[in-house]
Amino acid sequence: MMTSVDTDLIRVLADPLRLRIVTLLARETLCTTHLVEETGARQTNLSNHLRVLREAGVVDTEPCGRFTYYKLRPDVIAHLADRFAELAATARTAADNKRACP
Q1: Per-residue pLDDT, 1
Q2: What is the DSSP string of 25-55?
Q3: Alpha-carbon distance 98 to 84, whole Å?
Q4: Which end of the chain has fewer CB atoms surrounding its CB within 10 Å, N or C?
Q5: Are the C-beta atoms of 87 and 2 separated by less than 8 Å?
Q6: What is the pLDDT of residues 41-75, one digit of tens each?
Q7: For the whole model, what pTM was predicted?
Q8: Is 71 helix (H, G, I), strand (E, B) or coil?
Q9: 9/92 Cα distance (integer angstroms)
């Protein structure tokens, strides 16, 4: 069963730019400068999206001199994947269940 936390996480990841950021961070830890280069987004826009991802617990930050590096928290993504796997399993077993109309 999806929780409100799961629903909030889905909303966070539903944004195309945030999903792109997560996809990039799945491959390597990157700083804001790298993410600007990779996405073509403006730095201020990107920073706002990174803040949302950080507040949702999807990414962690790592200061490095004057730069901040971002890395994906795979456990959060795995948790969400587990919820979807549970939904799929429930749907498979309930495929022949049909509630009668009143």
Answers
A1: 65
A2: HHH--EEHHHHHHHH---HHHHHHHHHHHHH
A3: 22
A4: C
A5: yes
A6: 999 999 999 999 999 999 999 999 999 999 999 99
A7: 0.85
A8: strand
A9: 24
